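Obj: model holo form, ligand = adenine.
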Amino acid sequence: KQEEGLRPGRLADYIGQKDLKAVLEIAIEAAKGRGETMDHLLLYGPPGLGKTTMSLILATEMGSSCKITSAPALERPRDIVGILMSLKPGDIIFIDEIHRLSRMTEELLYPAMEDFRLDITIGKGQTAKTRSLPLPPFTLVGATTRVGSLSSPLRDRFGLIQRLRFYELDELILIVQRTAELLQAPVTPDGAEEIARRSRGTPRIANRLLKRVRDFAQVKKLGEITQPVAVEALEVFGVDPMGLDWADRLMLGVMIEQFNGGPVGLEAIAAATGEDSQTIEDVYEPYLLQIGYLHRTPRGRVATPNARKHLGYE
Ligand code: ADE
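Output (holo structure tokens):
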């Protein structure tokens, strides 16, 4: 995946998330000073904001390596046992979508996180024996879009719980310019700003849009990516001036036209748009809430007057 080469490798190259960086700088330096591993870290927030990247950076800064996995890949107890048994001292395990761990996997993690110990049962029924194996010290980095879905015993075992925020425009401009340089795609400052504005506060989207605009400029022989080039390309790709794509517009349009703007329940929106309700909640809603196009009320979701105006319903 080309994303790999674009990720910043060190904390100093990571743009944005100032609060998170300040907390981690101290945690890293303190752990290194004591010759220990860092406390387990839970990162939460919308997708695409840099949770995996931050975990890889932590490993580099600690001089260790990072094993990347996700809860759906840890379905059977033996999956997590295999990873824990192969750890070297100081390693980081990154578990994405950690709110989706199976119960047995989660229970194996409790003693592993707390005492660096693996408790396994050998055999079945009356003759079953339990064994407790020591593990090398490690740091678990968990990532989730829904911190509220974690069980409290699991959440309580993280010494650091940090939220990733949407990025500011100036931060996204720097990210677009940095990526453009790595891709050797010349972009003017206003071209970078146009892409950044339409990126929904999300570096992953900024980098994706930059690649699509680069393709467009190359095929149409338009030379460097200026603002008009970015506008024309992003119109072709269905990304509007607020960064909304057809899925966002479909969702808001359905709410306004079929449900009179709401309040309407999440499941009704999912049924009417053919989108999965969890995807709506984790992927589409956070940014629409952030820009004030959507409100959540006890009786359901409401499309705001700003959303109506943006979509031309006024
Ligand atoms: N690329 C993607 N996210 C980034 C970030 N936060 N800083 C620098 N480059 C990035």
